[in-house]
Amino acid sequence: MGEFFQNLVNALQYGSFLALIALGYSMVYSILMLFNFAHGDIFMVGAYIGFGIATLLVTLASFGALALPGWLILVLTIIISMFLTSFVGMLVERIGYRPLREAPRASAAITGLMIGIILETGNLALLGAKRVSFPALIESATYDIGGVFVTNKKIMIVFVSIILTLALHQFVTKTKWGMAMRAMAFDYLVVPLMGVSINTIARLTFAIGSALAAAAGILYGVAYPVLEPYMGIIVGWKAFVAAILGGRGSILGAALAGFLLGFIEIFVAMIFPSTFRDLIAYSIVLLILVFRPHGFFGEPYSAKLRL
Amino acid sequence: MQDTIEQTHPPHVTFWRKVKTLFVKIPLLGWIVGAIVAVLVERLVGSGFASGLGLTKEPALFGLLIILKTPSLIPGALLYVLLIYMLPTVAVAWATALFANRIAALLLKKHILIAVLVHLGLLYVVLHFWADISGYRAHTLKLALIAIMVTLSLNIINGYMGEFSCSHPGFMALGAYTSSVFTLSLFTDHRFFGSAVLPEALGPFLFPIGLILGGLVAALGALIVAIPSFRTRGDYLAIISLAFMFIVKSMIENMEFVGGPRGLSGQPRWADLTTIFIWTVISIWIINNFVRSTLGKALNAVRDEEMAANSMTVNTRRTKITAFLFAAFWAGVAGGLLAHVLQYVNPSTFGIQKLAEVLAMVYFGGLNSVYGSIVGAVSITVLGEALRPLEIFKWIIIPLILILVMIFRPPGLIAFKEFDVRRILQPRNTPKKEVKDDAA
What we know:
- The complex is a heterodimer of chains A (307) and B (440).
- With 307 residues, chain A is mostly helical.
- In chain A, 71% of the residues lie in helices and 4% in strands.
- Chain B has 20 helices and two strands.
- Chain B has a two-stranded antiparallel sheet.
């Protein structure tokens, strides 16, 4: 039983990365009907930007110039790199997606993939092939709750990701911008006629999605403090699967599916040999999609899908 | 009227038009004959000429590698390409145009099959002599031919049927492993499969059976993607196919009797240029016939409007399943050939990177087009090899080119074009009327 709860905690942590990244995929998908395949690499860029800012602040603190406590550095790092990474997202939208809005959807998928490769390679060219380690900002503390070991980092990660998800949900359902986004997701042809600029909304969507990916990247850096240029690929594709599983236009669906995918992976590794993890996890995904072809909260296929 | 239109163009456009009119009367046969002369010239005087220009040996890929590696040799490389390849090709093609037109007309009048075989035979001579110069050329050419097969087969699903399938590396892996197991267990003493069952001399003759078996296993695997495609399409099918790819990769990683994640090596060298060339030609021929058949038009109907197609008596389920199995078969065959060219496969050969590569070829070349697939596969393969001296920046240049192509020509370079063999082979000195009829 203790092992079960231990894995539950691990799955919650892993699922929260997937959920945060899946939100970005899901938002872009519901509004533009396109996938931002560069999203996994934006996650990587966010993690690296966070690494840069955290290192800068830690160095400043060590010289005594700006002696901030570790937790404040972490908060500042998250906020600043979310802000900076959102510009990366807007840039990706401007270069890879805006010119292709009327093109076949697959073409935009290709530009996204290619921008992702450019981001990876660009990082590799700038920083070299060596891995960098994320500075330890908060001291690790382990709590023993009835045989289950929980670190304060895990609690923080799950907490932050749930807060961000709920904040996004509030933003989309309660604010005027969110209303415009939902309207755009409902019909991107008519809503621009009502005076809502599709360019602004698309840019906003990419910015928010990238900011969330940056947050996920920093949390990932806190949990597994080794960053490398290709870290976004595997996590990114898994989050993409989660976004689809959640269903089109459903923010909570994407987050839930992210957590679910995390649970599946961790628990498969608990029961079976860990080499079977991908095999069984993706088989479950395939079965879910066979019996529920539009995800958990998605609407059935409609003729509106343009190809 | 005609003159006024001509005058509105800037001077360089009219110049290129004049150049084009010089060559418009040369049939394909003439170009191939010219190319034969060029490769023969290279074979006779190539190495001497290259050392005269200061190059160590003949430029491997039309001087592209040299230009990027050592900029001081650029004039030499350009001169080599100009004098050894371009000059003989153009001169011979131009000089023999009249003669070649007559021969082409004669061949077409006899039977189209004869004409095709003659052209292909001559084309093979060109490729053989070109690739004979160095092992590197031969390897690149083999990879390019295999890439043509894979790209064409993916184009059936992504271009003609309009789905976004990500499962092709999985199909290739199935084909590669099946045919490798076939050849390794029957004809070689292998540490996994024990001693040979049949004499090795029989191998090259039974090799096609191994490839076909690989294709059939891949087609069987395609059922996993094809059956869900009845109920869903678009992005959800993309995920199903992606999941399939990961499942295949992970499954092979867990199969210890084929080496698991360490892979399988020691495949015999039976995939030589002739074998691959024949298989590629067969695949182009069959796939081209398939997409131009009624079933192929049904694919387009399913892509454009599934419900309308269904109400117009198109059996959408049969169409989808045929397309998936057919495409998977050719991907499996290509995978088998690839395994025997590389003589080593492991599961990570068929991962996300392969997927990005194949997708890039399809969308670069053009959707819904056999021409496009050939152009895309060859150009991405050659580009990938030619930009090797740039090392890591290769992976910035190639994606940039693709992004530009997608922005300025979203469906790809040569999309939605029919591959009409008769039109390609026909003599070019015929009155214009006939050409117009074909174009309509």
